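Problem statement: downstream parser choked on a complex file, so we are re-checking the raw output for the guanosine-5'-monophosphate run. The parser issue turned out to be on our end (a line-ending mismatch), but while we're here, posting the original submission so the record is complete.
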Amino acid sequence: MKKEKGQLIVLSGPSGVGKSTVIAELLSQRKNIYFSVSYTTRQPRVGEQDGVNYNFVDRAEFERMIAAEELLEYAEYVNNYYGTSLKAIQDRLDAGIDVLLDIEVQGAAKVRARCPGALFIFIIPPSFEELSRRLHRRGTDSEDIITGRLEKARVEFREIPSYDYLVINDKVSGAVAEIEAILTAAECRVDNRKSILAQFA
Ligand code: 5GP
């Protein structure tokens, strides 16, 4: 059944928690979800592709997008800008497609203020030590950057109470199953099933 309006889903969690892997698995299992490819000024990591993982732009272009109000939200994170294109997501939501945003907590707070119907999910690792291990194992960032990301993670954890759901990424399959359950429950909300209800009136 086609939905009248897509669900906006905000997923946050510290860098290194394994969000990208969880998202890739979720997208392969669940249809009708569009992953919003963010804009960023950070350099691509090995294996990342422009237009797939991120749209990589320079600071001048990002600042032009801010000034032109092309972004639903944006934030500065460890010295780089990250932001979500408003048009890309609005078109999908209007077409009844769910839209998934992988964004950090400041951006999520902006979406919370602007989009009251959005669903907010925070992903944590099984422990703080495990987060540090995962960042080191990834091998893509210098020790300084890793320290910055761990410090940032501690600040981000303080925002968890303003999210709707908390998912623990111990095993990817477990985290994906929890997110699937959350999304299915959201779909079953009476508000989201108004078009079926009409025939029972
Ligand atoms: P990374 O550099 O590890 O890919 O991402 C760093 C952080 O930026 C992650 O927490 C990620 O969720 C966040 N992020 C990615 N895209 C966006 C975006 O469009 N807006 C905001 N606010 N944060 C983003």
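For whoever reads this later: The chain has eight helices and nine strands.
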